Amino acid sequence: MATNDTKPSTYTCNEYREEMILAGLKKRLAQNGLSENERSEVEQEILRIEKVMDF
């Protein structure tokens, strides 16, 4: 019988929330009609969240 000596990671509510926010921002970025300012703000927020999530 094989055993797994690594401790399983815990998936938290905050991680799920960050993933859902990131998905929503990426969907918004794909929409037409965003101004350059809005597009820049969304891109910056995506980068910030990805950095927090270690993407």
List unreliable stretches of 5+ residues.
none
Helix fraction, binned, reads 55-70%
* Shape verdict: elongated
How is the quaternary structure best described?
A: single chain
Gyration radius, to the nearest Å? 16 Å
Distance between the termini: 34 Å
Number of strands: 0
Task: Characterize this entry briefly.
With 55 residues, the chain is an all-alpha fold. Helices cover 64% and strands 0% of the residues. It has helices at 13-30, 36-52.
Summarize this structure as a short list of keywords or feature phrases.
single chain; 55 residues; 2 helices; 0% strand
Task: Give a written overview of the molecule.
By secondary structure, the protein is mainly α. The chain is built from two helices and no strands. α1 runs antiparallel to α2. The N and C termini lie far apart (34 Å). The model has no long low-confidence stretch (mean pLDDT 88).
Layout of SSEs?
Layout: H1 13-30, H2 36-52
Helix pairs in contact: 1-2
